[in-house]
């Protein structure tokens, strides 16, 4: 038996493609003479590769960074392999062979990875050097290794650890990157992520690699005026209910009504990335009205007070306020977490 397509879910993510393209163009412009690439790892930070990559490609972006080899297939539906860079690099001979077959560019992070890549046949690659984040990347002491000299390096890059803060580490990393660059034969240099773009063109070199800010994140105040919100979650009301003074709401009865109230139960919960940290702090919106969350966030639901929206009905859609800098301040999660946690049950446009 063939079953019909399921009806659309009661959760949706509106994606403002104009804002996305505008954010990329703004970051490209702020990069000065450098070109902006795009970090599209983790399904384009939760926004969806199929929504994001064609927009960025059409805006003029020609370098797309992902973390895992498992993400390559999704990218190749939209852009040619030489524009795809895999940040984790080849961790196994299979990874290196896959890069060779597909033509996708590995980012080499260690001597071990350099050896795997050369053993697989080598070819164009990028090299990540560590200038102080001490996470992923070749230690500076190893850039003179003969294996590195054998690599065909397109972009030499490094990654900033604290670019979203006014930390002296930024200038230290910049100075070390400048010192290392002449020791490696590479066609291009790249240092800045989104926050690094906000630090100014000293940090831009030939290519920048914004991620968060493309999707509406504001990691530094310099970007606040320019960057626009891209992801707009909405959730449907699945039940309306009236309660009386003394009635409690939700698990562990964390809210008790002190008067008669009209409540709405909404199809949005922590399984969708709307975590418990929003309990008692969040509000959804209907028209111009704020509908405060009551009690704990459940796995699939939240309950809101809809006193301010007397016309609200079952089936109506509520906006989930998701301006990333503001939402991060309110709930305590990082802007990155807020985006990448948005769950699989959201209907993302296609
Ligand atoms: C994720 C990532 C980026 C993008 O960082 P944002 O802070 O999201 O702009 C850039 N470069 C590397 C190496 C990354 O891992």
UniProtKB/TrEMBL annotation:
EC number of this enzyme: 5.1.1.1
Reactions catalysed according to its record: L-alanine = D-alanine
Entry's transmembrane regions: none
Primary enzyme class: isomerase
A GO BP annotation: D-alanine biosynthetic process
Any matching Pfam family: Ala_racemase_N
Alanine racemase C-terminal domain: residues covered: 230-348
One GO cellular component, as annotated: cytosol
Annotated positions binding substrate: 135, 299
Residues found modified as N6-(pyridoxal phosphate)lysine: 41
Cofactor(s) in the UniProt record: pyridoxal 5'-phosphate
UniProt keyword annotations, A-Z: Isomerase, Pyridoxal phosphate
Alphabetized GO MF terms: alanine racemase activity; pyridoxal phosphate binding
SMART domains, A to Z: Ala_racemase_C
Protein name stated in the entry: alanine racemase
Originating organism: Croceibacterium soli
């Amino acid at each position: 038996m063939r079953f019909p397509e399921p009806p659309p879910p009661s959760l949706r993510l509106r994606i403002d493609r104009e804002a996305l393209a505008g954010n990329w163009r703004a970051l490209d412009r702020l990069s000065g003479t450098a070109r902006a690439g795009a970090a599209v790892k983790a399904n384009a930070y939760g926004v969806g590769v199929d929504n994001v990559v064609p927009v960025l490609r059409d805006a003029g972006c020609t370098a797309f960074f992902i973390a895992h080899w498992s993400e390559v297939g999704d990218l190749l539906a939209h852009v040619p392999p030489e524009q795809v860079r895999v940040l984790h690099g080849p961790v196994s001979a299979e990874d290196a062979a896959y890069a060779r077959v597909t033509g996708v560019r590995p980012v080499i992070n260690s001597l071990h990875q350099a050896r795997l890549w050369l053993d697989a046949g080598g070819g164009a690659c990028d090299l990540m050097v560590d200038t102080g984040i001490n996470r992923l990347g070749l230690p500076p002491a190893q850039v003179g290794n003969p294996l590195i000299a054998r690599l065909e390096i397109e972009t030499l890059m490094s990654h900033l650890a604290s670019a979203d803060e006014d930390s002296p580490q930024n200038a230290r990393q910049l100075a070390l990157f400048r010192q290392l660059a002449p020791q490696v034969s590479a066609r291009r240099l790249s240092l800045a992520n989104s926050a690094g773009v906000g630090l100014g063109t000293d940090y831009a070199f030939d290519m920048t690699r914004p991620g968060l800010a493309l999707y509406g994140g504001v990691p530094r105040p310099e970007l606040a005026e320019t960057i626009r919100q891209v992801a707009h979650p909405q959730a449907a009301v699945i039940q309306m209910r009236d309660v009386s003074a003394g009635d409690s709401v939700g698990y562990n009865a964390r809210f008790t009504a002190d008067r008669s109230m009209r409540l709405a139960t909404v199809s949005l919960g922590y399984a969708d990335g709307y975590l418990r940290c929003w309990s008692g702090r969040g509000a959804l919106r209907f028209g111009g009205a704020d509908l405060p969350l009551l009690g704990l966030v459940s796995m699939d639901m939240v309950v809101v007070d809809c006193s301010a929206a007397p016309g609200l009905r079952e089936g109506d859609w509520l906006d989930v306020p998701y301006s990333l800098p503001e939402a991060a301040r309110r709930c305590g999660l990082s802007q990155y977490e807020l985006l990448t946690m948005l769950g699989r049950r959201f209907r993302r446009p296609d």
